């Protein structure tokens, strides 16, 4: 849009050009009306002044000239102002007293003129009321401004009279309200108006020729040009235009034409200014938009560049990360290689470690072997002698002359009264002052053997009151120092067990039996109704064993005799069964230790007893005599060892043969009156100590053998199930395949009920069925020593299995069905049983627990060590040359075989026939 230049000259020129014709047709009627309006206003002002001030200076309707002259002195104006606003002009210079004589129009003194008018105008201006120029009072034609001023004061006065306060706003002024455009125009208004004023004044000249008018207009235009400062070149055309308009106009028309022209110029100028302003605003907006767009572009550019920077940085980061990943990969590769090497290294270390471990195992095994070989070299039957102190005679040694490491001398008097010294040699001799600990220290190695799978028997032998119970159990008031071999042995057992727990797992069970008058009784029995089964109680600590021992002691039959009121007339046997499994190989081993406190060995005639006590003593002597027979048979390498002659030898069978290690504590009393018994005891003991059996063997079986056995057992079970009828046959008591032998009926009937409750101890009762199905076989690489049938029958490892040839209908029965027995796996048992002929008591131990089925299926060689009827190669029994052969004959009660009570078993064919029976028959034939 083309914007017209905003210069006064161009505006004036344009206005003149546009309104040229209009200036020619000015309506003078309106001019007249305006003139009338002006005179009316003047009259109103004059009237108001006259009313408020009074006086006669002002006429009712004064002419413009008269109005001006009346007000020239400023007195009326100041007085009127003081009336409206009292004290507004404090000092009003009054007119001289002869003012009436002063001609009209005569000039007042300069002082009056200046002072009053000035004060009036200043005050009016301060009050915010319209004013006029002081010169307006001097020149004609300007009364309208003076009139306006007076009417404004009047209006103010009326506003005040209405009781209003605050800022008064003049509403009656013909002045238009200022606008933006007018403000803009008013910039040049003062000189412009002055020019107009001057122009008007010049137009008012009487001469009033157009050239003079033109000259006035020219002056106005010149002022405008000078103030505008532009378009100097257009002045001539503007002059000619103005002249053209005014040259034919009358004098009185010119002000109106000029006023009209100026109004139009003002309007045009305002509209143009607004337009220019709008255009300027639009331009500014355009510029701003462009600026903004530029800014946006710049922002986008900046953003783009920052994004590019970010991308660049990220790219660099990615590169860096790639580098790190590559480095990490390389590191990982190195690490993997290193780990591989480490693994290989570790593997080789592990291999060497495992090799070392297996070597260590071998060394350990070798160590065990050597250890037990060393024990073997000491002899499998060892005899320790212990001398009891003289009771009540601390300083006397009685008949004991001297006690050496391995020998003891007795001082006796001969027939001729001379003192004779008799010396006896043993593996070890403990004097009266030997402590319980010292006695046990030489027993300790045997305990270790038990955990290595050997059978051990420690028994205390000696006459009543010689200290057997003291050695085995301890005195009545037991302390840590005085506890006997039993407790110490078990404590050691558990100690070793703990040490070996990383290599071998052990299960320990305890059995406690008593043989009284050739009757076997379970000392751990808590249930009186169940007399036929001996308890085998699992234990896990010495405390458990102590509790059991205490229960056993309570159950044990104790009576008094003339010689020792605390004497026990029964044999008691504490048996500890050990079953171990090597954790590495799975190989199993079994061992057991019998701790036997024998009844007193004194002769009946010295016991001075009769009746029941005599019977007890006879039984005791009989069983000890049977023990002597067995030992004698072993010493003389007899083909037949009469284990079956007493319950005691049956019980200890496994510990008296070549399989076991035996330790006999021989106790002697130092009292002179016991000399005879002492000598007999020592002779017997010395004889025993000369026996040297073959090397003992551990009860071990390899994992492979064990596995095969399990398979066989499983197959047998299947066969048994298939052949149900046959199984039923086995279930019949009369047909049951068992091993054992008959015992007198009263053995069982005489069993006493302890009626003791030991509910704290968990025990389990075992029966023959357990053995039948589950007991592991006993293998003997050496085979048997006895070739004849008696031996086959009598070979026992401390157990007596019922022979089916001996069983009768009222014998013990298998508890539960046979298959169910497979689920329980007891290894050892003791049972009581009865037959038609007599009651029987049977007890079994680990070493004789092979089931008959297994036993039958084994080859003779493999099963040679099975308890009953498998022939064994002859073992070497060496009898050391004793110093005194007389020993053999001086203990008739022990060494001379009492009439052997051969079991009918030997001559009776066994019902569970097979190779075993065939062998037996062939043995009989020999
Ligand atoms: N080495 C010893 N030191 C101190 N006292 C002992 C010793 N040996 C035994 N006695 C004491 O001698 C007495 C008899 O001992 P003990 O009862 O052990 O004999 P025993 O051989 O078991 O008799 P019995 O055959 O009648 O059972 C007890 O009072 C016991 O304390």
Fold and architecture overview:
This protein is of the alpha+beta class and 926 residues long. Among the domains are: 31-170, Actin-binding Protein, T-fimbrin, domain 1 (Orthogonal Bundle), CATH 1.10.418.10; 701-885 and 898-925, no CATH class. 49% of the residues lie in helices and 12% in strands. The chain is built from 31 helices and 18 strands. Strands 1, 5, 6, 7, 8, 9, 10, 11, 12, 14, 15, 16 and 17 form a 13-stranded mixed sheet that branches. A three-stranded antiparallel sheet has the order 2-3-4, with helices on one face. A hairpin with a 2-residue loop joins strand 7 and strand 8 (519-522). Helix 1 runs parallel beside helix 10, helix 8 (189-203) packs antiparallel against helix 9 and helix 9 (210-228) runs antiparallel to helix 10 (235-246). The longest helix has 125 residues, at 253-377. The chain is rod-shaped and about 205 Å long. Mean pLDDT is 67; it is low at 102-107, 172-214, 229-233, 557-567 and 726-926. Residues 388-389, 391, 462, 464-470, 475, 564, 566-568, 600, 667 line the site of adenosine-5'-triphosphate.
Comma- or semicolon-separated keywords:
about 950 residues, alpha+beta, Actin-binding Protein, T-fimbrin, domain 1, disordered C terminus, binds adenosine-5'-triphosphate
């Amino acid at each position: 849009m083309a914007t017209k230049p905003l210069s006064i000259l161009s505006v004036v020129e344009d206005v003149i050009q546009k309104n040229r014709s209009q200036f020619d047709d000015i309506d003078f009627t309106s001019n007249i009306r305006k003139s009338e309006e002006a005179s009316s206003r003047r009259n109103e002002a004059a009237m108001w002044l006259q009313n408020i001030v009074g006086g006669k200076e002002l006429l009712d309707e004064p002419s413009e000239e008269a109005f001006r002259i009346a007000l020239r002195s400023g007195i009326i104006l100041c007085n009127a102002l003081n009336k409206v606003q009292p004290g507004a002009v404090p000092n009003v210079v009054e007119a001289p007293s002869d003012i009436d004589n002063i001609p009209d129009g005569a000039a007042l003194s300069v002082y009056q003129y200046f002072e009053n008018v000035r004060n009036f105008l200043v005050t009016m201006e301060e009050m915010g009321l319209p004013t006029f120029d002081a010169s307006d009072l001097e020149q004609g034609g300007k009364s309208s401004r003076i009139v306006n001023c007076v009417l404004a004061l009047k209006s103010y006065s009326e506003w005040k009279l209405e009781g209003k306060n605050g800022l008064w706003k003049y509403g009656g002024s013909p002045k238009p309200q200022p606008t933006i455009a007018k403000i803009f125009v008013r910039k040049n208004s003062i000189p412009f108006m002055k020019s107009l004023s001057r122009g008007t004044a010049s137009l008012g000249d009487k001469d009033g020729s157009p050239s003079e008018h033109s000259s006035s207009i020219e002056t106005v235009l010149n002022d405008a040009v000078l103030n505008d400062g532009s378009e100097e070149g257009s002045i001539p055309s503007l002059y000619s235009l103005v002249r053209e308009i005014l040259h034919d106009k009358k004098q009185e028309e010119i002000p109106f034409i000029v006023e009209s022209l100026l109004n139009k110029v003002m309007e045009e100028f305002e509209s143009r200014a607004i337009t220019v302003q709008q255009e300027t605003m639009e331009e500014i907006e355009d510029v701003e938009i462009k600026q903004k767009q530029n800014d946006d572009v710049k922002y986008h550019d900046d953003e783009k560049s920052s994004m590019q920077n970010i991308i660049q940085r990220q790219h660099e980061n990615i590169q860096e990360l790639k580098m790190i990943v590559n480095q990490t990969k390389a590191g990982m590769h190195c690490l993997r290689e290193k780990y591989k090497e480490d693994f290989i290294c570790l593997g080789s270390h592990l291999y060497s470690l495992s090799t070392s471990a297996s070597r260590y195992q071998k060394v350990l095994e070798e160590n065990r072997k050597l250890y037990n070989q060393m024990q073997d070299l000491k002899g499998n039957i060892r005899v320790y002698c212990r001398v009891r102190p003289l009771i009540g005679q601390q300083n006397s040694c009685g008949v004991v002359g001297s006690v050496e490491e391995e020998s003891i001398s007795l001082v006796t008097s001969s027939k001729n009264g001379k003192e004779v010294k008799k010396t006896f040699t043993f593996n070890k001799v403990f004097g009266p002052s030997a402590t319980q600990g010292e006695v046990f220290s030489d027993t300790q190695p045997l305990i270790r053997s038990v955990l290595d799978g050997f059978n051990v028997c420690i028994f205390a032998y000696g006459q009543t009151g010689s200290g057997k119970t003291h050695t085995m159990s301890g005195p009545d008031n037991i302390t840590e120092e005085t506890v006997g071999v039993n407790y110490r042995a078990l404590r050691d057992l558990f100690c070793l067990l703990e040490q070996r727990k990383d290599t071998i797992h052990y299960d320990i069970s305890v059995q406690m039996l008593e043989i009284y008058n050739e009757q076997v009784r379970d000392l751990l029995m808590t249930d009186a109704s169940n007399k036929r089964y001996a308890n085998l109680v699992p234990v896990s600590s010495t405390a458990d064993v102590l509790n059991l021992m205490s229960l056993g002691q309570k159950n044990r039959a104790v009576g008094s005799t003339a010689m020792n009121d605390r004497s026990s007339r029964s044999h008691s046997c504490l048996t500890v069964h050990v079953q171990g499994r090597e954790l590495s190989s799975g190989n199993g081993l079994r061992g057991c230790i019998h701790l036997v406190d024998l009844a007193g060995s004194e002769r009946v005639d010295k016991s001075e007893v009769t009746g029941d006590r005599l019977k007890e003593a006879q039984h005791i002597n009989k069983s000890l005599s049977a023990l002597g027979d067995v030992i004698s048979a072993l010493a003389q390498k007899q083909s037949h060892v009469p284990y079956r002659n007493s319950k005691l030898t049956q019980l200890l069978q496994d510990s008296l043969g070549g399989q076991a290690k035996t330790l006999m504590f021989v106790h002697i009393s130092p009292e002179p009156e016991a000399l005879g018994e002492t000598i007999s005891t020592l002779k017997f003991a010395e004889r025993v100590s000369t026996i040297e059996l073959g090397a003992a063997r551990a009860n071990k079986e390899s994992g492979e053998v064990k596995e095969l056995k399990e398979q066989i057992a499983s197959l047998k079970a299947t066969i048994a199930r298939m052949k149900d009828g046959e199984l039923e046959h086995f279930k019949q008591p009369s047909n049951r395949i068992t091993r054992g032998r008959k015992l007198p009926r009263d053995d069982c009937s005489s069993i006493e009920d302890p009626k003791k409750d030991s509910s704290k101890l968990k025990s389990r009762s075992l029966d023959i069925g357990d053995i039948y199905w589950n007991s592991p076989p006993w293998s003997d690489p050496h085979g048997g020593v006895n070739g004849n049938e008696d031996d086959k029958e009598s070979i026992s490892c401390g157990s007596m299995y019922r022979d089916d040839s001996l069983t009768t209908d009222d014998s013990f029965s298998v508890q539960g069905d046979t298959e169910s027995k497979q689920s329980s796996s007891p290894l050892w048992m003791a049972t009581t049983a009865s037959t038609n002929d007599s009651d029987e008591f049977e007890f079994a131990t680990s070493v004789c627990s092979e089931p008959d089925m297994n036993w039958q299926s084994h080859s003779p060689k493999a099963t040679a060590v099975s308890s009953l009827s498998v022939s064994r190669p002859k073992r070497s029994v060496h009898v050391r040359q004793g110093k005194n052969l007389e020993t053999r004959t001086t203990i008739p009660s022990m060494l001379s075989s009492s009439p052997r009570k051969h079991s009918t078993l030997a001559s009776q064919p066994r019902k569970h026939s097979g190779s075993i029976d065939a062998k037996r028959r062939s043995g009989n034939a020999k």
